[in-house]
Amino acid sequence: MLKRALLPALALGALAGCGIFGGGPHREHYPDARIDPFKGVEGDVGFSDTIQYWRTEADLQRHAALAEKPAEQWKLNWKHMDLDRIELHPGHLAVDEGQALVKKLAARDPAFLACLGEGSADLKGKAAAYPKFDAALGRIVTVEDRIEHCAKRVLKEDLPQGKPSNTKISVYFKSQSAGTPIGVDLSDGNVMEAYRRGEELFYRKTGQLNFACASCHVPGSIMGHKLRGETPTTPFGDAAHYPTYRTPVGALESIQERFARCHGQMRTQALKPGDPAYADLEVFMTVLSNGYPVSVPSAR
Amino acid sequence: MKRLVLLAAVLQGLTFAGAAAAQGAAVPDYSAFPCLSHTLPCGELAAREPVRKELEGPLDGNAARGKQTAFARNRGNCLACHVMPGGSQPGSRGPDLSHFGSTGRSTAETFAMVWDMRTVNPETLMPPFGTNAVLTEQELRDVVAFLLSLK
């Protein structure tokens, strides 16, 4: 009921500063950056405006010199790392491992693959439409959630989101859409509602440090500024390369595990991968990648 | 060059095979503060209201200790946003505090700001160090002594 009260308040843009909404708890929000979901990744124009450096491979190549400039590197949104195409790229190994896992599970029951592909064994292009609303399940489903659900339903096997085997299968599933523009379906009212919920979460201040995601990821915030060793970048385009292989720790990471890591920095209670709030946040983040090609496998 | 870095990363990945598991293991508990959950109690928790904290008695702060508190990543971590003399990898979003002691701010005013900057600017990015108990009152007194010593 609380969320019901929040949505109209958001729509009115009554979001700035300290917000006390309809009798709910005292909540503070970072001022609304007024992102237009229908612009997809192009919403970065007039937002961080860094998309001019990373929109296409040609743009990235033209601005490759930024990678060597500490104060400006953030403008590449780390997309220059997608240009590294070597055979031994650890993300590629994950594709192979994920594929082998799918084969093994589908050998036990081919219905597993058909469940992943919602009726057909062909996964090509399908991940680009995620997250989506699944009418039969009555909820927003991400690729990792689909994998968990199908393993459970068809094979009675636990493959929880956040478990490396789930993430590997996700890398394989999404690699089957590599290059396909992301198209989260905003014409679906349930998806739009999830986007609005995710949007509110993005601006909501939480935790001991009282930060919102927006405190570091919108213009005027810490975005583009040094935060000790790091520089937070635009949220546009990020969802495209997840799950990613994290070079510094040598492990795969799903986007929801990334949310949890930012929550750690914010001294905010992190949630489990698959938590409905994280699914809403993933919808919000993925809409900010609409129109940008799926870029899995990747390394960061 | 980059190839080498990545190759090294692969090898490193083998060495740190347990890192992923370890990563998920020790999740600190911040459930006493608001979170984003739709279901957990912290999702319904109120943010602590801004508090205008009066400084009582003499400051009695130790600037050297305050410097340590300000620099430590797991304490004040003021360097995340501010330049402070002697600090490594300073952040750039907040004002440079290298000469804060010469700006004419009073002790009480400085104390109130670091206790809860929202009383000065409701939309500040600076964490409410006192209100949210990031630092203790004595630690904040030390930090204020350090700030005022920066001439």
Spell out the key features of this protein.
heterodimer; A: Cytochrome Bc1 Complex, Chain D, domain 2; two-stranded antiparallel sheet; 11 helices; 37% helix; B: 151 residues; mainly alpha; Cytochrome Bc1 Complex, Chain D, domain 2; 5 helices; globular; disordered N terminus
Tell me what you see in this structure.
The complex is a heterodimer of chains A (300) and B (151). Chain A is mainly alpha-helical. Chain A has a domain at 2-46 and 185-287: Cytochrome Bc1 Complex, Chain D, domain 2 (Orthogonal Bundle). Chain A is built from eleven helices and six strands. In chain A, the strands form three sheets. Chain A has a two-stranded antiparallel ribbon with strand order 1-2. A two-stranded antiparallel sheet of chain A has the order 3-4. A two-stranded antiparallel ribbon of chain A has the order 5-6. In chain A, a hairpin with a 4-residue loop joins β3 and β4 (139-141). In chain A, α4 crosses α7, α6 (143-155) crosses α7 (164-175) and α8 packs across α11 (276-287). Chain A is globular. With 151 residues, chain B is mainly α. Chain B folds into two domains: 18-47, no CATH class; 63-149, Cytochrome Bc1 Complex, Chain D, domain 2 (Orthogonal Bundle), CATH 1.10.760.10. Chain B is built from five helices and no strands. Chain B has helices spanning 2-15, 19-25, 63-71, 107-115, 137-148. In chain B, α4 (107-115) crosses α5 (137-148). The relative contact order of chain B is 0.16. Chains A and B meet through β2, α10 and α11 of A and α1 and α2 of B.
The CATH fourth-level homologous superfamily of the domain at 2-46 and 185-287 in chain A: Cytochrome c-like domain
Helix content of chain B: 25-40%
Give the number of DSSP strands of chain B: 0
Approximately how much beta-strand content do the residues of chain A carry?
A: 5-15%
Low-confidence stretches of chain A: 1-21
CATH architecture heading of the domain at 2-46 and 185-287 in chain A:
Orthogonal Bundle
How does the major sheet of chain B shape up?
none
Write down the CATH topology of the largest domain in chain B: Cytochrome Bc1 Complex, Chain D, domain 2
CATH class of the domain at 2-46 and 185-287 in chain A, named Mainly Alpha
By DSSP (H or I, 4+ residues per run), the number of helices of chain B equals 5
Helix and strand sequence of chain A: HEEHHHHEEHHHHEEHH
**Count of all domains of chain B:** 2
Largest beta-sheet characterization of chain A = 2 strands, antiparallel
Oligomeric grouping of the chains: heterodimer
